[in-house]
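ingest -> validate -> predict -> emit
validate: passed (alphabet ok, no gaps, 286 aa)
predict: started
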Amino acid sequence: MEEKEINYDRLKQGGFLRQRQKEDFFSIRLRMVGGQLTSKQLRALADAAEKYGKGEIHITSRQGAEISFVELEEADDMLNELEAAGVHQGTCGPRVRGVIACQGNRVCTHGLVDALGIAEKIDEKYFAKELPSKFKFAVTGCPSSCMKPQENDFGIMGALEPEWIDEKCTRCGLCETICSMDAIKIEDNTFHFYEDKCNLCGDCVAVCPTSAWIESKSGFTLWVGGKVGRRPELAIKLVNIVDEKELFEIIEKTIEFYKENAPAGERFRDTIDRVGLDKYKEAVLG
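emit:
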């Protein structure tokens, strides 16, 4: 019987993780932007796991899926069948990894931005892009930070800057009650707004019955240089609010800065620390 030819170029693209078993088994990582799947894709995953693996699917911490116990000679066939159903190969190694996201304002009542839509655009442009080390994006719809943007190389958070209109305010106190940051106080019918405490969640705008709170500006708060692992670091807040055009300009400049300044294997946060935060900010913000 003729030995089947293995597509090693496909292996190098990533998503193939060798297992600890002595047999030639691989765990195959699959690409799911923001953890979003259709019922058709879910059925295809189940069929592939039963046909090529052990009937098990591992849901990863980054909203991806892995099918384990796949024999190397059958990996191409499995991936071809999955791709026909719209489920594509994942990646690993020194590349832009799968983008994680919450459902944002498509579903969540607190969502300020279309987190999934932004994640899809980032994935389309940058997924599996070669870089000095792994690079992770997270997109979250509001400052509740469900997707933990502060733990990623580049974190994106929906934000809304509120503005208070005195003549419309009845001092009902709803905004003071809902504000989790204690940024709003009403004392002796005198209104106080502590802007330095505001986390740009927009809850005051949503709850106000008289439109005394309105949206002054909305967009994205950006965090950079976060990572977990053996030497975890929380990300640095880069900018409070930018619009979508500015967001993608900063992403592009960040990718270029990282490629130009980092040696192979160096994480983005380590590059920022070594080269200097001010130099990075100058490169991406001007």
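The radius of gyration is 23 Å.
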